[in-house]
Amino acid sequence: MDRFSLCAIFILVLSVCTICSVSNVHAVEPLSTLCSYQYGNYSANSTFENNLKLLLQSLASNTPITGFNDTSVGNSTAQVYGQALCRGDTNSTECRDCVKIAAQGIMSQCNKSLDALIWYERCQVRYSVMNFFSLMVYTGKYTDSNYPRNVTANPARLYSHWIYMMTNISGEAAFDPSLQMFATGVVNFTASRAIYGLVQCTRDISASDCNSCLRQALGDLRTCCYTREGGMILSRNCNVRFEHYQFYNGPVTSVLTYHYSEGNRWKKWIIVLVLCVLGSVSFVVIGYCAVFFSRRRKDEFDDERSRSALFHDYAAPVGVAITEAGDLVSSDELPFMDLTIVKAATDDFSSSNKLGQGGFGAVYK
Asked: Tens digit of pLDDT for each residue in 201-238?
């Protein structure tokens, strides 16, 4: 094969790769856009539009150097302020490509807007007619990608794990200067599953503002994704995300192990103790009731036996007679009953059993 043929094949392959690359660029969809028209619109071919194009070119060229860049172009009413942030785990090539795509996307999706912001998976780009540098204004946005995620069977347990991790790495991102306001983390969830998290702030705000932004974003993350196995919140100055799989590159900033606090352990022991006490009390109450009803049945049986004995005495009465000495002797003609039998028969001489009053006293049935 001659040199001409090799060159032709090389050019063909290069053309195909270029076409595929361009197609992929245009196929990428933003996570979200924020086109604000509160400051009005700019005119086509105006000085502001020309400055905006120069600004976006500058961001695409300079942001990959450190992963963050803010700058302005022009002056007076035509001055435009811009900012770009690449995710902390991207390399310079990925950062450059993402910012280029974002620059095209923000021009097409926020047509003629004087203030706009666009988010992609690996970067975000913002411009405005107003100077927004170093200002933290929280504007949390839910992404549509939050809703197709699976719903967990135990949201309270999942939440306790991911909020523990996200709170820890938020503090690291805000207050550890070496991390440049970007942190990732992983925490154990089960023996075979873990939860991965990522937080990031724009580097033009203070550490306290970064921490405040992340905490507000975590509040929104709980609102949207408490029952889900992943979620993401985007804002002008910070972004947060957690998943059940590792979605970022490079080493993890923090590997965490979730431990139940001593307070939770005490609560468990208190619950166990209360249950034991309730069980013991229930056992005592049940035992008391069993004894009470057993004795009641025995008393009822004894009463029944007394009534049976009374009826037997009525059926076979015993006679008595009074001797000259005043003693009582048996007599078949005169019935005699013991006092206890009479009391049982009259319910202790109850007035309800009284029939009337005779010459020798009261008469009972």
From this structure: 999 999 999 999 999 999 999 999 999 999 999 999 99
Q: Looking at residue 114, which CATH number applies to its domain?
A: 3.30.430.20
Q: Contacts for 51-58 with beta carbons within 8 Å, 24 or more apart? A: 51/78, 51/79, 51/80, 52/80, 52/82, 52/107, 52/127, 53/107, 55/80, 55/81, 55/82, 55/127, 56/82, 56/103, 56/106, 56/107, 56/125, 56/127, 57/103, 58/82
Neighbours of 190 (CB within 10 A): 9
Residue 214 CB partners (closer than 8 Å, separation 6+) = 170, 173, 174, 199, 201, 238, 240
Domain residue limits at 179? 142-259
Q: Which of 75, 98, 133 finishes a domain? A: 133
User: How many DSSP H helices and E strands does the chain contain?
Assistant: 7, 15
**Is the same domain home to 208 and 244?**
yes
Lowest pLDDT segment from 73-87, 143-157, 200-214: 143-157
**pTM of the full predicted structure?**
0.66
Asked whether residue 164 falls in the same domain as residue 192, the answer is: yes
